Structures are given as structure tokens and as C-alpha cells.
Amino acid sequence: MPGNRHVLSHPIVDSRLSQLRLATTNPKDFREGIHDISFILGVEATRDLEQEPFHGHTPVGPFTGTAIKPRIGLTPILRAGLGMADALLKLFPSAPVYHLGLFREKVSLQPVEYYSKLPSVPPVDAVFLLDPLVATGRTACAALSMLLDWGIPVSKIKLLVVLGSEPGLKHIEENHPDLEIWVAAVDSDLTDDGLISPGLGDTGDRLFNTLRE
């Protein structure tokens, strides 16, 4: 496994993901499962954040505390990435959220950009790119290119993923070998249609209850 890929190993994550995989899981429980796993991903991926000291007073006396030093931005890939954003906002309540609109063309499986909320100059020091499902990896690579063009170096970007395919993650790693990836679980296979197998289906449709009968 590449050194910059971190796969979670935790009983709660495994249990939540197993519930997400079930076709019978309803949208409410699916959203909550994505949220819970995203929160744990956020905690694990922030272990090395730089801190700075400050001095304050408790009701009893003075103390020296710490605060997170870098300015953090969140970039969810629409629309499924929205399911991860609230969990990261619990960790970084004041973080700006920059939506990136990308969809995968059904025939070519190539990403198509349709929306970007990135300001002209980055007002943040580091970015968490949120993509719950990495299948071919092309959409994530397109989003990464947008962030790099924006002026955020790859060393200041962390990709957070609920479920990735081995081919998709390898594609990202080949194109961005210095990128730090945090993923809850990895499936080995892709279908001919570019879907993760066994996977958990279309994350956006299951989050927002737009599955077609």
C-alpha cells in the first residue's frame, strides 16, 4: 500500500459501512452512516495539524491552551460530497465550504465540470477534499486539478473517502503520488459501467432519496 494512503481499521467504521452497503438501508440511516464515518475520517486525518499556544483563564486560574493554526477549507464534490460536509463542519465550524460541481459522463466515464465556488485567491492554508465514493478516480483527479490550479499545493490537500476502489485509488496515486488519502474501506473491483463492486450503490441518489424504481 502506498505510504500516503491511510485505510481506517475500526469496528465502528466497519459496522457503519456494512449498514451502508445494504440495499434495504433507508435514506435517513444512509445519511447518518456517511456522516458518522466522515467524522471519524476527519478526526484521524487531522492528527498532524499544526497547533499554536494561547493563554487564558479557567474559573479557577490561568492555563496555556492550543488552537489549530492553519486556516482550513472544505471542498465537497457535488453532490455526494455534501453528505460529508456537516461532519467536517463539526470539527471546523468556521471553515469555508467551496462546492465543486463535477459529474461523470455515462458513456466515456470522464468527469465534466459544471460548477466551482472557489474564490480568485485562496483564503485558506489547507483543504480537505470530500468525495465519499471513488470509483474510477477520474472525478477526484479533476477536482484535485482545480485545487492545484487555484494555488493550493498538493502537500496541503487531503482527500477523504468513505469507500474507494483499488483501481480508482491507484489512478489517483499515479497522477498525484504526494497526495495524502484517507479512506474508510477499499473494494477491489469495478464493473464495466465503472461502479464499485460490491460497493454501496449511487451515493448521491441514496443520500438524497432520488433512486429510480
Q: How would you sum up this structure, described in words?
A:
This protein is of the alpha/beta class and 213 residues long. The chain has six helices and twelve strands. Helix 3 (82-91) links the parallel strand 4 and strand 5. Helix 1 (11-21) runs antiparallel to helix 2 (27-45) and helix 2 (27-45) packs across helix 3 (82-91). The longest helix has 19 residues, at 27-45.
The 3D shape can be described as globular
SSE-based structural type: alpha/beta
Low-confidence stretches: none
Bin the helical content: 25-40%
Strand count: 12
Span between termini: 39 Å
Strand percentage, roughly? Answer: 25-35%
Please report the number of helical segments: 6
How big is the Rg?
A: 18 Å
Entry summary:
With 213 residues, the protein is of the alpha/beta class.
Features:
213 residues; 30% strand; two-stranded antiparallel sheet; alpha/beta
Helix and strand arrangement:
Layout: E1 5-7, H1 11-21, H2 27-45, E2 51-57, E3 62-68, E4 72-78, H3 82-91, E5 100-104, E6 111-116, E7 126-130, E8 133-134, H4 138-150, E9 157-165, H5 166-175, E10 180-187, E11 189-190, E12 196-197, H6 203-208
Parallel strand pairs: 1-10, 4-5, 4-7, 7-9, 8-9, 9-10
Antiparallel strand pairs: 2-3, 5-6, 11-12
Helix pairs in contact: 1-2, 2-3
